[in-house]
């Protein structure tokens, strides 16, 4: 490697190992990349960790020749723009999730297509903003694009949304978006701290996801849920969801399964099941890829107006392999509330 080229710090891996192994995530020095086409070169100020980081890093029989960088939540400042950029300029403060088929954002500088980047909310610092992009895109697309919920409150009067796993990263922003859209929100949780967190974000009711859903809904005076958004173990909850969904209702999930689902359970109700994967638009460079830019900008507007708030619950400094291994370990428990953020490479 030519040492005269500008370098940057990063955290990545060559081997896919258990997080307890020191080489599962390591500190690196790499060449600073250059933007082309519609790419922005962003100076990374803060990052957040999601379950997808853990899934990508999970042990497997594969060794990378070049280091693999994880991280799909970034807040930072635009340093350079590619020759075809039209939306941003150097100095702009931004936040985004990035693309699953490119290097992640756990590095001092990061390349990202401007069409999936939003302007950072001015009322949030970089750490608070870094908690939001991936989960917000997931919640927004799932709610409005997949479940086809109307953004207008009047259209949703009397309609209910059941969120399975309401206190996690996606659930924490989904509760807020759903309440802003006028839905009655029922979240599932099993611990007092997660229940209180979900209620604090606006959930109208909390039920226990270890107990049958429908009797608990009925006890609240809710015959069945008009919409269900599954954020935890689709297979485990499938039969309960099929029973709890209203006729002609819609179910969305973000959690892949090990076995096929019995879709026949939905037939008599003419119910819809749909997946949400927030990387779809960037992975396939769909014609509506810029929708993620637009929804992040609208989210920033709602945050700056006081309608939504950050979901950050914990912050670590600095950004390095040791701290990232700690956060991966926490995410692997499946018991984290809200979002954990890391800030500063210094």
UniProtKB/TrEMBL annotation:
Cross-referenced CDD domains: AL_MDR
InterPro entries per record: ADH-like_N, ADH_Zn_typ-1, ER, GroES-like_sf, Lipid_raft_assoc_Zn_ADH, NAD(P)-bd_dom_sf, Quin_OxRdtase/zeta-crystal_CS
One Pfam family this sequence matches: ADH_N
Domain of life: Bacteria
Domain Enoyl reductase (ER): 20-342
Single annotated GO MF: oxidoreductase activity
Keywords: Metal-binding, Oxidoreductase, Zinc
SUPFAM superfamilies (UniProt xref): GroES-like (SSF50129), NAD(P)-binding Rossmann-fold domains (SSF51735)
Family named by the database record: Belongs to the zinc-containing alcohol dehydrogenase family. Quinone oxidoreductase subfamily.
Name of protein: Zinc-type alcohol dehydrogenase-like protein
């Amino acid at each position: 490697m030519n040492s005269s080229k500008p370098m940057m710090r990063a955290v990545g891996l060559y081997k896919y190992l258990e997080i307890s192994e020191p080489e599962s995530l390591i500190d690196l020095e790499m060449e600073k990349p250059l933007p082309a086409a519609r790419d922005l070169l962003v100076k990374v100020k803060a990052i957040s960790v999601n379950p997808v980081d853990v899934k990508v890093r999970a042990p497997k029989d594969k060794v990378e020749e070049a280091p693999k960088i994880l991280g799909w939540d970034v807040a930072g400042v635009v340093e350079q723009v590619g020759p075809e950029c039209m939306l941003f300029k150097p100095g702009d403060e931004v936040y985004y999730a990035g693309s699953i088929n490119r290097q992640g954002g756990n590095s001092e500088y990061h390349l990202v297509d401007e069409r999936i980047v939003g302007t950072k909310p001015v009322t949030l610092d970089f750490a608070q903003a870094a908690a939001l992009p991936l989960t917000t895109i997931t919640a927004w697309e799932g709610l409005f694009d997949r479940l086809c919920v109307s953004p207008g409150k009047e259209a949703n009067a009397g309609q209910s949304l059941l969120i399975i796993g309401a206190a996690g990263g996606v659930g924490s922003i989904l509760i807020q978006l759903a309440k802003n859209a006028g839905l009655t929100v029922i979240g599932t949780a099993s611990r007092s701290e997660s229940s209180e967190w979900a209620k604090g974000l606006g959930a109208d009711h909390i039920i226990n996801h270890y107990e049958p859903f429908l009797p608990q809904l009925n006890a609240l005076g809710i015959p069945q849920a008009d919409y269900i958004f599954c954020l935890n173990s689709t297979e485990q909850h499938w039969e309960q969801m099929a029973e709890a969904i209203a006729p002609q209702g819609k179910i969305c999930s973000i959690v892949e399964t090990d076995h096929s689902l019995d879709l026949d359970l939905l037939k008599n109700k003419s119910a819809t099941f749909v997946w949400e994967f927030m990387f779809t638009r960037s992975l396939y460079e769909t014609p509506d890829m810029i929708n993620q830019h637009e929804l992040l900008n609208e989210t920033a507007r709602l945050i700056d107006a006081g309608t939504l708030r950050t979901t950050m619950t914990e912050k670590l400094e600095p950004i390095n392999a040791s701290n990232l291994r700690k956060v991966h370990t926490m995410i692997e428990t499946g018991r984290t509330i809200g979002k954990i953020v890391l800030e500063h490479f210094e």
